[in-house]
Give the backbone structure.
Amino acid sequence: MLNKAEEHVFRPEFVLFETWYSSMTNLKEIRKKGWHWLFTGGKKKRVSKENLEE
């Protein structure tokens, strides 16, 4: 879906989504596009900067 949005010249500053979609793969893909992400975090969800830079 992110790639389709980009193909249609959709360039958001932020991508907002629910925790369900917050896999490291998705977060890295959003970051690679130069977009920022924001998601509703659960109590057990943690993201570290080091994991995103791998």
In short: The mean pLDDT is 81. The longest strand covers residues 14-18.
